[in-house]
Amino acid sequence: MSTPQIPLTDWPGPMTTGVPVGAVLGSTGSLELKTDGQVLTNLHISGRVNVYAKNVVIRKSRIVAPDASCPIRTFGQARGLLVEDVEIDGRGIAGPAVSPGDYTLRRVDIHDVVDGPRLGNRTSILDCWIHDLVRSGGGHNDLLQTAGGSGILVRHNRLDAYRASGDPMSACLTITSTGGRLVSDLLFEDNYCDGGDYTVSVRADAVGSNIVFRNNTFGRNHRYGVIARPRQLGLSWENTNLWHDSRRQVVI
């Protein structure tokens, strides 16, 4: 299944995501963040980060999962969480990496999780590298998943679902609608995506409005195809989506 590798110099990777080289980190355990505007930096966090406050910032830090729970989770009135230049190491047991919404990830390196971030209301994934998911039983392993939400931006990320072992995992992005929840105003652009049963898995129950895919580049290491149900109501697939190896349009 694997196709020859072409350098991915146009998208994030190990040199541009995660903890900056030379950063010195202090150690701490799990955190409960309840102060609006709190800024955390240069930490090695062995545990979970639960956010209850507004406009919290986590920078230049590493979060190592202690168990199978969610490494970063927002609760209640938490709004505007910014996670920047951070590594999330799920140790093969944690996932989803971040949930459920009201956050921005920028230059975050996420790996060895069962599932990547959940995309709820007001979420942005920018300049991140998500890779090396870990199988857990017969589960569906997705780099990104939304089951309902509005105001979602996924821009200029490297999304590597395919593993060198030959496992494509489930998807780079899964769109579904739990309980009929609407997925609206989702922009997915300028990303590199490779792997998945379908690289973009649009489930039969997905209820969408203004879901746009444009200017993305795709590898060929999927199992069945680039996108399932590309003509689902509310979804727009533009002709600017290209194959990485040929730079030709992905025709669906």
From TrEMBL:
<dbReference type="InterPro" id="IPR012334">
    <property type="entry name" value="Pectin_lyas_fold"/>
</dbReference>
<protein>
    <recommendedName>
        <fullName>Right handed beta helix domain-containing protein</fullName>
    </recommendedName>
</protein>
<dbReference type="InterPro" id="IPR011050">
    <property type="entry name" value="Pectin_lyase_fold/virulence"/>
</dbReference>
